[in-house]
Specification:
single chain; about 110 residues; four-stranded antiparallel sheet
Length: about 110
């Protein structure tokens, strides 16, 4: 669905000069709002499971002004991690016997 709203998206605002971060989660209608933010140049990032991470740098915030950043998340590739472990077969290193099968006599 193109242009659908994405509730519960984690939005992080990071001041590029100080590194100070503010985090908010988007509402049911996909909107978010941050108040009391320090003026300066910021990076806005957004994450939601199943989507690629969004990041936009150099967002300038000024005193007394409202800044709108529309975030569009792209569907991400599904990732799965599989861990395979195996135990080595037990070998008796103390025995001098050689085991195996021999072809049947005709």
């Amino acid at each position: 669905m193109r242009g659908a709203v994405l509730p519960s998206t984690t939005i992080v605002l990071r001041n590029q000069d100080t590194g100070m971060r503010r985090r908010v989660v988007s509402n049911a209608d996909g909107s978010y709002f941050l108040t009391g933010v320090t003026p300066g140049v910021h990076e806005v990032s957004a994450e939601l499971a199943g989507f690629k991470k969004y990041s936009r740098r150099d967002v300038r915030l000024e005193v007394g002004k409202t800044t709108t950043v529309d975030i569009r998340l792209e569907v991400g590739a599904r990732e799965e991690q599989v861990t395979v472990t195996s135990e080595a077969p037990l070998v008796d290193l103390t025995s001098k016997e050689v085991g195996g099968t021999s072809p049947a006599a005709s």
